[in-house]
Specification:
GO terms for molecular function: transmembrane transporter activity. By secondary structure, this protein is mainly α. It is built from nine helices and no strands.
């Protein structure tokens, strides 16, 4: 099994992540709290109350973990294509796989990465939703002191299965949308590249950016549900499952609830995925 794709996926995931984390914090807050009127309001309040650091809450952990998750995604994607088409990454622009093969490989990568992503994503969401400013003498400490403390508290209070809260919603969110992600990328690259040639850097950037936006647009309704189920610990209201969470959210807040965070998700998705695909392609060309 070729491993360069896993390494390239690791590095490119880390680069994309740093660029996108501030957008991600605003998104998670908008989706799970009702105190903000919109993106700008959330940004201003976060900055006033917590300074720039507020936007980077919960980042150290995803930078290590998302890199692993992206490595699994791109590694499994590329190796599934190898199994389906018997072509390596280097040969794929000359002998392109069909879109069905790309979709199947994307869904497979998406499905497998969920099991690495679920606990990391849960911890990230819980830490991002702590809105207390950095510890001041006399003020009560935040509930979780950091990722390790957060993981340990969840295990203690909710059992190890607590770390997988929301994992089913995450599977539903990621399996088809990662298929869409790779199909959009391939389609846009092939549209603007003469047959058989490698796409240019500009093409890779734009195709990667739009692959991110398209897949996030489709994923947003389940993203909202996933984040809410992850926040529903023993003390918050508990949903009976994905459908129950959907029905209750829609009843209480209207259908618009499924699109919370769509604008911010798209604004984040372009730079993150443009950089992820560009670094991924370049690392592989450089090693190949
Ligand atoms: C499929 N779905 C849209 C849910 C996720 C796509 C993930 C791509 C990238 N790691 C990012 O964070 O944007």
């Amino acid at each position: 099994m070729p491993v360069e794709e896993f390494v390239a996926g690791w590095i490119s995931g880390a680069l994309g992540l740093v660029l996108g984390h501030p957008f991600d914090t605003v998104k998670v807050r908008l989706q799970t709290q009702t105190t903000y009127r919109g993106i700008i309001d959330c940004m201003v309040k976060t900055y006033r109350h917590e300074s720039l650091l507020g936007f980077f809450k919960g980042m150290s952990f995803p930078i290590a973990s998302i890199a692993v998750v992206n490595s699994v995604l791109f590694g499994v994607y590329s190796n599934t294509l190898l199994a389906l088409t018997a072509t390596s990454h280097q040969e794929r622009w000359a002998q392109p796989p069909s879109y069905t093969q790309v979709f199947i490989a994307g869904c497979t990568g998406g499905f497998v990465q969920v099991y690495c992503l679920a606990p990391f994503d849960l911890i990230k969401v819980r830490l991002q939703n702590q809105t207390e400013p950095r510890a001041r003498p006399g003020s009560p400490p935040p509930r979780y002191r950091g990722p390790v403390h957060c993981a340990a508290s969840i295990c203690q209070e909710e059992g190890p299965r607590g770390l997988f809260r929301g994992a089913w919603a995450l599977t539903l969110r990621d399996t088809p949308t990662l298929g869409i992600y790779f199909v959009t990328y391939e389609w846009l690259c092939r549209q603007s590249t003469p047959d058989g040639q490698n796409p240019s850097s500009a093409t890779v950037l734009v195709a990667g950016g739009f692959a991110g936006i398209t897949s996030w647009a489709v994923a947003t309704p389940l993203d909202v549900i996933k984040s809410r189920m992850q926040m529903a610990g023993p003390k918050h209201r508990v949903y009976r499952g994905v459908l129950d969470c959907m029905a209750r959210s829609a009843q209480q807040e209207g259908l618009g609830v499924f699109f919370r965070g769509l604008t911010i998700n798209s604004a984040r998705a372009f730079p993150v995925n443009a950089v992820t695909f560009l670094s991924y392609e370049y690392l592989l060309r450089w090693w190949g």
